[in-house]
C-alpha cells in the first residue's frame, strides 16, 4: 500500500482512502483507483506502459524462439499479463532499494518469457501476422464440484473484491 502525505489544506482524514466514517459507500475498486491516483502513476494508462515496455525489451524475434504480436492487446492473456506487469511496476517502484529488481525478477521476466514463448499467446501469429487463436474448450461445471469451501471466497477474504 502506498503512503500519502497530507498536502496543503488536507487533514489526515482527507488523505485516508480507506476511511469510511463519512457515510460514503465507496466501493473497494473505487478506493483502489483513488489510491493509485493519489500515489501518482509513472504511466497514466496501460497503453503508455506497453509503449514503454516495447521500447526497453528488445529480444531477437527473428530466431523462432521468440514471438511478438503488434496487436498484443487483441490477445486476452497478453492483455492481462501486460496489465499485471504495469500494476506491479507502479507498486514496486516505491521500494527504492529492491523494487525494480523484484519487478524484473518476479514479474517482468516470467511474464515476458511466457508472452514471447513460441507456445505462448502469440503462437498463432508467428510468420503470418496477427491471428486470433480459438479459446480453450470448456464444458459446464457440475454444481456439486464447486460445493467444497475451498472453491468459495468468504466475505472477509482479503482477495475478494
Tell me, rounded to a whole number, the average pLDDT.
Answer: 80
Order of helices and strands: HHHHH
For the largest beta-sheet, the strand count, sense and barrel status come to:
none
Give the proportion of residues in helices.
25-40%
Portion in strands: under 5%
**Overall 3D geometry?**
globular
Which segments are poorly predicted (pLDDT under 50) over 5 or more consecutive residues?
1-23
Span between N and C termini?
16 Å
Give the number of helices: 5
Structural class: mainly alpha
Describe this structure in words.
This protein has 161 residues and is mainly alpha-helical. It is built from 5 helices and no strands. Helix 4 packs antiparallel against helix 5 (99-116). The longest helix has 18 residues, at 99-116.
Amino acid at each position: 500500500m502506498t503512503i500519502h502525505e497530507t498536502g496543503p489544506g488536507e487533514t489526515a482524514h482527507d488523505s485516508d482512502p480507506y476511511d469510511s466514517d463519512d457515510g460514503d459507500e465507496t466501493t473497494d475498486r473505487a478506493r483502489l483507483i483513488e489510491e493509485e491516483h493519489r500515489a501518482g502513476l509513472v504511466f497514466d494508462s496501460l497503453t503508455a506502459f506497453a509503449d514503454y515496455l516495447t521500447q526497453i525489451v528488445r529480444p531477437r524475434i527473428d530466431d523462432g524462439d521468440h514471438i511478438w504480436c503488434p496487436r498484443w492487446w487483441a490477445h486476452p492473456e497478453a492483455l492481462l499479463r501486460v496489465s499485471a506487469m504495469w500494476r506491479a511496476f507502479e507498486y514496486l517502484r516505491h521500494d527504492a532499494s529492491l523494487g525494480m529488481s523484484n519487478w524484473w525478477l518476479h514479474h517482468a521476466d516470467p511474464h515476458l518469457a511466457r508472452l514471447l514463448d513460441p507456445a505462448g499467446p502469440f503462437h498463432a501469429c508467428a510468420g503470418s501476422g496477427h491471428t486470433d487463436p480459438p479459446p480453450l474448450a470448456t464444458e459446464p461445471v457440475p454444481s456439486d464440484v464447486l460445493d467444497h469451501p475451498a472453491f468459495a471466497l468468504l466475505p472477509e477474504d482479503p482477495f475478494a473484491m
